[in-house]
């Protein structure tokens, strides 16, 4: 019931904020797509496409062949680009929070993650490390851990004075007994992701674009922001 209510409210807010919300979503998806594209194709980066093509043709590549494709400058540029991804994600979280709370929004909200660059990056790196360590035990503990830290960005934007560790710890408290609810909510979007991926594969462009994500990103983002609000309300009661 909670999932259906949150999703219905999300659709209502999207149409109340259209067409601006679709423009912001398009820019977010575009930035993320370009960053991912550059990570493997930027001049000086690892020649991932060559390795992929050779593996696809059935060629067996040794470690020596793969090692020769690494270039220090390219690896450095790829790391910088990968650091931008969580910053953009955090900015979109901030934007969706504002819509969920019926606050005024601007295009620059998409870049709010850069205002708290170090904190956002710290949250991303620490939670990634924790999830990786839990995954060493078994696959399921890693999934559980990923849901444990899902509210950290929301907590940061709610109170920017809080540090990364505090946001992570408070996320753990908020998600206590709520992880299954959020997992079920995520599963209700699975069909959309499958359709988006199929459309993405069928696009005949040299630079393919996940066009359905323009709708899916705000739909999922605002719904998750609403879930966070429900968690906060439960704690306040």
Please tell me about this protein's structure.
This protein is mostly helical. It has one domain (2-236). The protein has helices spanning 2-16, 20-41, 48-56, 63-68, 72-100, 112-115, 117-135, 139-148, 152-158, 164-174, 179-187, 190-202, 213-236. Helix 2 (20-41) crosses helix 13, helix 5 crosses helix 7 and helix 7 packs across helix 10 (164-174).
Descriptive tags:
237 residues, mainly alpha, globular
- What is the radius of gyration? 19 Å
Number of domains: 1
Give the SSE order as H and E letters. HHHHHHHHHHHHH
Mean pLDDT: 85
Strand content: under 5%
Summarize the structure.
By secondary structure, the protein is mostly helical. Helix content is about 75%, strand content about 0%.
Describe the secondary-structure layout:
Layout: H1 2-16, H2 20-41, H3 48-56, H4 63-68, H5 72-100, H6 112-115, H7 117-135, H8 139-148, H9 152-158, H10 164-174, H11 179-187, H12 190-202, H13 213-236
């Amino acid at each position: 019931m909670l999932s259906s209510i949150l999703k219905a409210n999300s659709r209502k807010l999207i149409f109340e904020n259209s067409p601006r919300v679709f423009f912001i979503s398009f820019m977010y998806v575009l930035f993320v797509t370009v960053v991912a594209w550059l990570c493997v194709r930027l001049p000086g980066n690892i020649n991932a496409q060559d390795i992929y093509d050779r593996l696809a043709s059935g060629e067996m590549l040794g470690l020596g062949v793969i090692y020769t494709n690494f270039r220090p400058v390219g690896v450095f540029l790829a790391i910088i680009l990968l650091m931008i991804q969580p910053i953009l994600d955090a900015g979109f979280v901030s934007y969706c929070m504002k819509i969920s709370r019926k606050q005024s929004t601007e295009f620059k909200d998409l870049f709010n993650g850069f205002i708290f660059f170090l904190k956002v990056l710290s949250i991303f790196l620490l939670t990634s490390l924790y999830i990786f360590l839990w995954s060493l035990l078994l696959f399921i503990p890693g999934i559980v851990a990923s849901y444990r830290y899902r509210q950290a960005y929301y907590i940061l934007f709610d109170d920017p004075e809080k540090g990364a560790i505090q946001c992570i710890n408070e996320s753990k408290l908020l998600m206590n007994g709520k992880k299954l609810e959020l997992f079920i909510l995520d599963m209700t979007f699975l069909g959309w992701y499958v359709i988006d991926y199929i459309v993405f594969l069928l696009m005949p462009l040299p630079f393919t674009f996940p066009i359905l994500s323009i709708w899916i990103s705000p739909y999922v983002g605002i719904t998750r922001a609403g879930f966070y609000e429900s968690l906060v309300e439960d704690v306040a009661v």
